[in-house]
Specification:
- There is one protein chain.
- This protein is mainly α.
- The protein contains 17 helices and six strands.
- A three-stranded antiparallel beta sheet has the order 1-2-3. Strands 4-5-6 form a three-stranded antiparallel beta sheet.
- A hairpin with a 6-residue loop joins strand 1 and strand 2 (about 15-20).
- The longest helix has 27 residues, at about 155-185.
- The protein is globular.
- The protein starts with a strand and ends in a 28-residue tail after the last helix.
- Bound molecules: s-citryldethia Coenzyme A (SDX).
- S-citryldethia Coenzyme A binds near residues 266, 306 and 365.
């Protein structure tokens, strides 16, 4: 028996197989089960991929027990304190922190890809004014695949890099245009003198009739929140992008599939759902009733912004956002926003409740982010769009990593078939 192997015995037949163990640099090693179906005749069954690794990755590592999150090995707390979104985007795409010259060049590239094709502007008018901005994002981002034929040979690393730059650069412009459409205001072009976050605020909130000044507190808060949302291992939307990309699909269409997956309230849609939930709870006195509902298996209600597939300790991003909430509300919102008060009480009471303690349900990244967006004047239906802007860096970095991984092939999971065994067609006369 090899040292770095796991031996599995089939107790039905006594047959054994030795499976190699792949070593990780951090976190659990992985048993390679690629031969298991061929050698043992069984599939592995793991709905939701609770304990299945879909790929090798060197981008992001999180430890759910320790509440740890690293981007390319750097702790999220240090990046939040010392870095900025564009620098972290460079780190995720290229693997190391940039030199001053590399950062300046990368920032310039992203800035000069931020305009969208002029004919795209009319796409937004095809939507009703009350279309959810995430629905618009899925449609418009997917349509980018009809524009860039000069960078879609995905076998060409340079094409992949240009597509990644375009995607990162254009998301804020498309997001802002989605917002402008929903409020019936004219779209605003990017301003190359502004930062990534500042540009988004300007494209969302400036109007032709008066000068708009980007608030530095809002700009810093948005830049930080974007850093915290950049990537998160193989979450649902990232796995969707990888699976779409594994078929060789157009990169912009792959990102559109990630946006669609992120929209779900169990995933990135939770930040918008948290605000609706806090609104529904309304008063601190109603918290016990809603906690009871969250624990009632017959009630579909869940405490939005609580729980996580991996974090069984406090989500480090939630802690950073919670602290920033105080600062932003003091500067921009009403210092004691009743929603923030309610959120603090809900968190305090839930974390003392056995049901949440036993299931290690802590606030996640979505619990507080909506409160900050609200203080920045961003409407609730744009919260997940904010998440999508930041996560686009993670999606494109994961997509690039997958395409260049020689182990990767088209994703094609198996199944545990529990349907009817073979049977013959029954004519209508005999039914
Ligand atoms: C994000 O994967 C990522 O990394 C995602 C993300 C990222 O950056 O990409 O971190 C972003 O999506 C954060 C999660 C945002 N979603 C929400 O806040 C929605 C509310 N949370 C739940 O839907 C849930 O916690 C999930 C979806 C986040 C995790 O679900 P799991 O891992 O499948 O856990 P589970 O549903 O099996 O729950 C385990 C138990 C169950 O109870 P029992 O059957 O054991 O009795 O905990 C309960 C659940 O009923 N539970 C909750 C709960 N979350 C889990 N009960 C009440 N309220 C909740 N929020």
């Amino acid at each position: 028996m090899g040292k770095d192997t796991v031996t599995v015995t089939d107790n039905r037949t006594g047959r054994q197989v030795e499976l190699p163990i792949n070593s990780a640099t951090m976190g659990p090693d992985a048993v390679d089960i690629g031969r298991f179906l061929r050698d043992m005749g069984y599939c592995m069954y793991d709905p939701g991929f609770l304990s299945t690794a879909s790929c090798r990755s060197s981008l992001t590592y999180l430890d759910g027990e320790k509440g740890m999150l690293l981007y390319r090995g750097y702790p999220i707390e240090q990046l939040a304190e010392h870095s900025n979104f564009i620098e972290v985007a460079y780190l995720m795409l290229y693997g190391d922190l940039p030199s001053p010259e590399q950062l300046a060049e990368f920032s310039n590239i992203i800035t000069h890809h931020s305009m969208i094709n002029e004919s795209l502007k009319s796409f937004f008018h095809g939507f009703y004014h009350d279309a959810h901005p995430m629905a618009i994002m899925v449609g418009v981002v997917g349509s980018l695949s009809a524009f860039y034929h000069d960078s879609t040979d995905i076998a060409n690393p340079r094409h992949r890099e240009i597509a990644a730059h375009r995607m990162i650069a254009k998301m804020p412009s498309i997001a802002a245009a989605s917002y402008k459409h929903s409020v019936g205001e004219p779209q605003v072009y990017p301003d190359n003198s502004l930062s990534y976050a500042g540009n988004l605020l300007n494209m969302m909130f400036s109007v032709p009739c008066e000068k708009y000044k980007v608030d530095p507190v809002a700009e810093k808060a948005l830049d930080l929140i974007f850093i915290l949302h950049i990537d998160h291992e193989q979450n649902a939307s990232t796995s969707t992008v990888r699976l779409a990309g594994s078929s060789g699909a157009n990169p912009f269409a792959c990102i559109a599939s990630g946006i669609a997956a992120l929209w779900g309230p169990a995933h990135g849609g939770a930040n918008e759902a948290v605000l609706s939930m806090l609104d529904e709870i309304g008063d601190i006195r109603n918290i016990p009733l809603y906690l009871a509902r969250a624990k009632d298996k017959k009630d579909a209600f869940r405490l939005m912004g609580f729980g996580h597939r991996v974090y069984k300790n406090y989500d480090p991003r939630a802690r950073l956002i919670r602290n920033m909430c105080h600062e932003v509300l003091a500067e921009l919102g009403d210092a004691r926003d009743p929603m923030f008060e309610l959120a603090l009480h809900l968190e305090e009471i839930a974390l003392q409740d056995d049901y949440f303690i036993e299931r290690k349900l802590y606030p996640n990244v979505d619990f507080y982010s909506g409160l900050i967006y609200r203080a920045l004047g961003i409407p609730a239906n744009m919260f997940t769009v904010m998440f999508a802007i930041a996560r686009t860096v993670g999606w494109v970095a994961q997509w690039m990593e997958m395409i260049s991984d020689e182990e990767q092939r088209i994703g094609r999971p198996r199944q545990l078939y529990v349907g009817p065994t073979q049977r013959d067609y029954v004519s209508m006369a005999q039914r």
